[in-house]
Design brief:
By secondary structure, the protein is an alpha+beta fold. It has one domain (6-150): Roll (Thiol Ester Dehydrase, Chain A). Helix content is 17%, strand content 41%. The chain has helices spanning 12-18, 65-84, and strands at residues 6-7, 30-35, 39-45, 90-102, 111-122, 125-134, 137-150. It has a seven-stranded antiparallel β-sheet with strand order 1-2-3-5-6-7-4, with helices on one face. β6 and β7 (137-150) form a beta hairpin. The radius of gyration is 15 Å and the shape is globular.
C-alpha cells in the first residue's frame, strides 16, 4: 500500500469543490482521513440548531436515520469525486442501500464518524461498506451503491 496517497484531512471548502451539496443538506463537516480511493472517515458534528431537530422529535431530538445514511453516502461520494473525476465536474448518484441497521440514537452534541470502505468498482459504479460511530461505538451501518455521472452544469 506504499503507493496509495493518504490525505490526512479535507476541510469543508474542499468538500464544496467535490460535492454539490450545500447547507442544510451537506451532512459532513470534513474528511478526517482518506486512503486513496479505498476508504475515508467523514466527520459530522451534530448540533441542536439543525433544521430536522425541530420536528424529529420535539423535546427529544434524534438525528433521522436517513440522514445518517446520506452522510455515509456523501463521504463515499467524496472518495469517488476526489479520485475518479479526471479533474472534471462530476456528480455521484446514490443507487442502492442494503443491510442498513441502526443500533443507537444519534443526538445533538455527538461527533458522528462515518467510516466508508470501497468494496467493489466496475467502471463508474461503486460499492461501499459503511459504518457510523459515536465515541467508538457503532450506531449505524449499511452497504451503499453509487454511480458517477457527468455534471450538466458547473455551479462552482
Amino acid at each position: 500500500m506504499s503507493d496509495v496517497a493518504i490525505i490526512d484531512r479535507l476541510e469543508v471548502t474542499e468538500l464544496f469543490k467535490l460535492l454539490p451539496h450545500r447547507y442544510p443538506f451537506l451532512l459532513i463537516d470534513r474528511i478526517e482521513q482518506m486512503v486513496g480511493d479505498i476508504s475515508a472517515i467523514g466527520i459530522k458534528n451534530v448540533t441542536v440548531n439543525e433544521p430536522h431537530f425541530t420536528g424529529h422529535f420535539p423535546g427529544e431530538p434524534i438525528m433521522p436515520g436517513v440522514l445518517i445514511i446520506e452522510a455515509m453516502a456523501q463521504t463515499a461520494g467524496a472518495i469517488c469525486a476526489k479520485h475518479h473525476s479526471g479533474g472534471e465536474r462530476k456528480l455521484v448518484y446514490f443507487m442502492t442501500i442494503d443491510a442498513a441497521r441502526f443500533r443507537k440514537p444519534v443526538i445533538p452534541g455527538d461527533r458522528l464518524e462515518l467510516h466508508v470502505a470501497k468494496t467493489k468498482q466496475r467502471g463508474q459504479i461503486f460499492k461501499f461498506d459503511c459504518q457510523a460511530l459515536v465515541a467508538g461505538q457503532k450506531v449505524a451501518e449499511a452497504k451503499i451503491g453509487a454511480m458517477m455521472v457527468d455534471a450538466k452544469h458547473d455551479p462552482r
